[in-house]
Design brief:
Length: 68
C-alpha cells in the first residue's frame, strides 16, 4: 500500500495534520480491508490517529488473523 508521502514524514503526525478528513479515514480503512482482508471497528481509526497508530493497529490485526 502506498500513500505517496514524503520520506521525512514522522510516524507521530496525525491523519488530520496530513489533511485527511473523515472520508479519507474511511478510504484508508477500505484500502487496508482490500489489501489485507482485515476490518477496523468503528472509531478505531480517526483523524487524530497517527501514522504509527494506523500501522500498529493493522499489524495487530494481521498478527491476530495469522494466530487464529
Amino acid at each position: 500500500m502506498k500513500f505517496n508521502l514524503p520520506e521525512d514524514v514522522a510516524g507521530t503526525i496525525s491523519l488530520e495534520e496530513l489533511g485527511i478528513d473523515s472520508l479519507g479515514v474511511i478510504q484508508i480503512e477500505m484500502m487496508i480491508r482490500k489489501e489485507f482482508g482485515i476490518n477496523f471497528e468503528d472509531g478505531v481509526l480517526s483523524g487524530e490517529s497517527t501514522l504509527d497508530n494506523v500501522i500498529t493497529e493493522t499489524e495487530m490485526r494481521l498478527a491476530g488473523a495469522s494466530n487464529g
